[in-house]
Amino acid sequence: MLFKRFYLIIGLVFSSASAQYITTDETRTAVELIEDVLINSGCANISNVSASGGFFASGEKSWGYFNATGTSFPFEEGIVLSTGKIVNTQGPNSFISDDGGGMGWTGDNDLNQALGLNNTFNATVLEFDFIPLGNQISFDYIFSSEQYLTNPNPNQCSFTDGFVFLLKEVPSQSNYENLAVIPNTTIPVKVNTVRGTGTICPAANATYFDAFNGTEHPTNFNGQTKVLTAKADIIPGQKYHIKLVIADEGNYRYDSAIFLKGSSFSTGVNLGDDKTFVNQNPVCPSESITLNATTTGVLNYQWFFNDNPIPGETDSTLTLNPPYNVNQNGTYSVELTFSPTCISTSEIDLDFATALTVDQTSYTFCDTDAAQDGITTVTLSDIIPTLFLNLPSNLQMNFYSSPTSTVPLSNSFLLTTPFQQTIYAKISNSSCYNPIAVTLNINTFNAIINDETATICNNISTTLTADSGFQSYTWNTGETTPSINVTTAGTYTVLIENTNGCTKTKTFTVTNSEIATIENIVITGFDENTSAEILVSGNGIYEFSIDGVNYQNSQIFTNLTGLVYTAFVKNGCGIVPKDFYLVQIPKFFTPNGDNINDIWYIKGIRPMTPNARSIVSIFDRYGKLLTLFPAFGNGWDGTYNGQQMFADDYWYVIELGDGRTAKGHFSLLR
């Protein structure tokens, strides 16, 4: 609940200044600062005013008046309390202000007790008694400090000065209440409890931090909070004492200041807490609400909506009844006239939650995972537009695993129950609505769809055919038939939909191609170590075989033991064959005249081109050349100079015309 300031029917008018920096004035008395600047109305009976602080040898004070008219500072005028000279609070922010060293300027015991400190220095105090007419007080302030460093050392992150706004009844209660706290908490406002991001120091309650300042700023401080409001419930007609204190902590270095907004000290009425979507407590659709401003001594009441008078609403209460609409969201205020010189305005912000109409609560999705097990990830935000017919933009929707769960599900929600699961939709920024059960149904596409490759042979069109038996087909060419004809190479996709409405995409990779040309067959090795590599040319992806049945991607075939083979090379354009021949070297021969294995010769040589220079040389174990003959010749009959050679091992050297050579031995058996 916020207050507007009291104001005098006849007030002072201050002239605007054109300077970009605040100015300070130390000539005003403490009474003038409280009565004419901070309160500036007849709505509180003020007494027992006093101020204390640093009185410097040069005559400057640590407390006084400031004027910010014409600058960017949020307050036009007010009171400034500092831990140094207030003249040094004036901008620009060009030097570090750290006044008050070595002058015996002490701290304050009440501040120490309120903040749990024992090492404060340079305390500036402004205090007074007052008797309010309303049941709540409030005033606006800004805390500024040189300790808001933009480039601090790690050990400077804990540096902070302290200040308090202390309130108690008179005669004195046992303890003061500190009003200078972070809203809706009991945490005192200090440098290390309100700080923004952007430095090595940790941010704290950054919502309430204004900015780190450059040189050109209306004040000579490195940073400050946003405008904050100190407030407290009070008893009309009861005397209170308020003590405003600021002090350095630890030592006199790095001054701080409190700026109190002029005319902001209000003693209005408490209309209750704001009921807004931001606070997650709007007025519910079926709820009536009564705002009660009844206060002793009020002569007249007038209620307002967004600063406009509500016709006929001049009672002490304002009752609002359903049905509501979004045009009623806003600020409701009441103007209380206590006397011709005291008019107080109090206000409350109200948002009205809309009665929601449920539309759809069951949703069907397709399993997009490879497993097709009925467990998939669903984007829950896709549900929100159709869940209600009239969901306002200021209501925040989240989904939960159960009606009582307080942990929202991730927007990318992975189901934990296959095929069907119930989750719960809840409005997270209002307690007006019950959870809504939402059913998630998961359909699957169980058929396996494999991608394919295809070729266009010699620029002749080819047909791409998707898997059959499905509901619909949508090609990236725009066609909707199961098969299409294509005449150019490229990537073609078809979206296949089954009867459940789920889809899979099949991709055809189409390349230009032609039948292969076998350029050569390179044969390596002899006997059981022989391999053949089929070398081809042509535009295409080819498969290779040496039996016409079993094909492979590799061009190389190993462990060949036959003599005559046919190489086959195929693709979508056709098959091309080519014969090739291998060589086998006998391990022994038996030249005994029975016409069985009487001649030692190279098997497989004979089909080779006869004019290719292929020579076989035979040696005995001593290296003596016994014979030399063409590899495609008749071979060796086991004689030398007409004499039969002894049974023994003999050595050969083979030099084939295709570049292969071989050395080894064989046996002559008798």
UniProtKB/TrEMBL annotation:
Signal peptide (residue range): 1-19
Q: Which Pfam families match?
A: CHU_C (PF13585)
Alphabetical UniProt keywords: Signal
- Record's keyword annotation contains Signal: yes
> Is the keyword RNA-binding assigned to this protein?
no
Q: Which domain of life is it from?
A: Bacteria
- Matching InterPro entries: Choice_anch_L, Ig-like_fold, T9SS_type_B
NCBIfam families from the xrefs?
Bac_Flav_CTERM, choice_anch_L
Name the UniProt record assigns to this protein: T9SS type B sorting domain-containing protein
Species this chain originates from: Flavobacterium macrobrachii
